[in-house]
Amino acid sequence: MEALRELQARRQYVHVNPKKVPLEAEAIVSIRAAPDGSIVSVTLLRSSGNDDLDEAVERGIAAAAPLPAVPHALHIARIDMHFHPVRVDPLALQPGQPGIHDAGNSEGRSSDSH
């Protein structure tokens, strides 16, 4: 759990042209990481159908490297992730104002998991 909290704290937003990416798009990516957190490979399991989003996902993963080290006892070498675009209203990013919008929920995250 500590590794997941650390990764969420380091989460970065990767920008794409919002006119080119529909909110319902979804890319599924498999990330293989070494025990020290370095990324061994990134495989697009399912394209979103939008090259801009697929490329932004790969850039975002590269920007997040290295990932937090995974405790050996967990035996995790592969992480499959679902990526959905979100819309950010920069004017609303002030204390107490919602600024991130997506098609599924108000947090911009999916509960889907492999």
Automatic annotation (TrEMBL):
Keyword field contains Transmembrane: yes
InterPro entries: TonB/TolA_C
Domain of life: Bacteria
Pfam families: TonB_2
Region (Disordered): 90-114
Subcellular location: Membrane
Keywords: Membrane, Transmembrane, Transmembrane helix
Membrane association type: Single-pass membrane protein
The name this protein goes by in its record: TonB family protein
Organism: Paraburkholderia hiiakae
